[in-house]
Specification:
mainly beta, Immunoglobulin-like, 4 domains, ten-stranded antiparallel β-sheet, seven-stranded mixed β-sheet, 5 helices, 36 strands
Amino acid sequence: EQIGIFVNAMLDSKKISTPIRDISGESPITIQFDRGDKILRYKLYPQLNLTGCMVIDPDGSMFLLTNDTAKSLLIRSELQYLYNDYFLPTLSVVSGENINTVLPESYTWLYKKVDNNYYSDNMTGTYDENSAEIISIYPNLNSFLKFSVEPSEVAYSFITDEQEYISELSYLSFTEDTEITVSITAKWSDVGAPDFYGEATYSFPLLYDIPAEIEMFRTEFNAGDAAVLNIRHLNENEQITIESQLITSETIEYTFTDKNTTVALLPISEDNTAGTYTIVFTVSGASYSYTVNVSKTDTEPVFVNVAQEVYDAMLSEVAVRETNERLAAVFTKAGKEAYYSLGETFTAPVSGTVLSSYGKSELISVDATTRKILGTVYSVPDGTAVKAAQKGVVVFAESLPSTGNTLIIDHGYGVMTCYFNLKGFDSVVGDSVLQGEIIGRSGSTGFTDGKSILTFSVAVNGVFINPAEFTG
């Protein structure tokens, strides 16, 4: 049947020397015939006009279809896309430059084709609450609902979770992020045999979204500190970006403390030099700029004589890279749950003499490289009980080349504590642990310069900071 229609269309067409319109910007429909000995390809340039449908044959000759042939083609389903402007008008939610299209919950729609008969629109989809993302409007932006073709009749209603009824979008005014159910009934009249008519109903959630606000209470820091960010009105689908010369984490882990407040930590890396830095936080188009001062005390590195075989196994470039990559992989999987309340003090995992503290450095004899101490190193007898510094979940318990038997606890807020050089583990991955609970035993695995020690480190968003920020 399809072959016959297109063959007859060509037989009834009239050859023309020049196109009746400029078709350089049009995308033709390719009609392909397999003649057996070769493939013949024709290009059809349709138009919703009985006198405007053209065809170019494989030789490049141009033909104009007759009115009857054009009509028979233009009502076929393959050319239904030509009637896109006659389908159900689109509804858009506009807030500033943000434009989101909403599908109807249900609709009945008829549109007229070139044969003057009405056909049902079966191309427009319907709203699926399971796959649709909630749309936000912002009080600081001009927000409105807009149909691509205004209906002849329309009724709106906006209802909050507390069943508060609001009749106009412009009347919305809240002090907190508020979810609203929008209901719309729209009708396009059939009076006067229009090109299209019908009606549609809409029901979808809308978020009255107060822009996120970011506060940073401190502006004076030491390298190794962590800045506390208080963020209001942040949504879970919003991301904060950081622009600064300050060496810090690439991302921020948020922990929602209540409906409208979020707390996050920003680590100040030991790798920063002393100086003044500008930090710009951007979220949903709004930017917040802070100027911070970072202090740093440089100390002379302590020379450490290391045997070649120890260096190769624990401190070589290969060993250090493997250790750092394994640790980084754990840090990137920080959970969203907070296991403690921000501000609660962490306790030291052992009682012992501090051999070295955060920020100190060691000069390695083999290659004259400087090794940073990114935690607190305690001298303790072999087998000393090591206790969790705070509540959390064990997320790693394995041996690494440089740090030996390593146990890591996730506490939330992007904070993880690391316990290096252990003799053995008393906890396994997945264990929930309480502050002060024994999680392992101290030892001399990894690089310890032959001593029985525990190295205790704290990482925030994957950046090692001074444990004293948490232990006091």
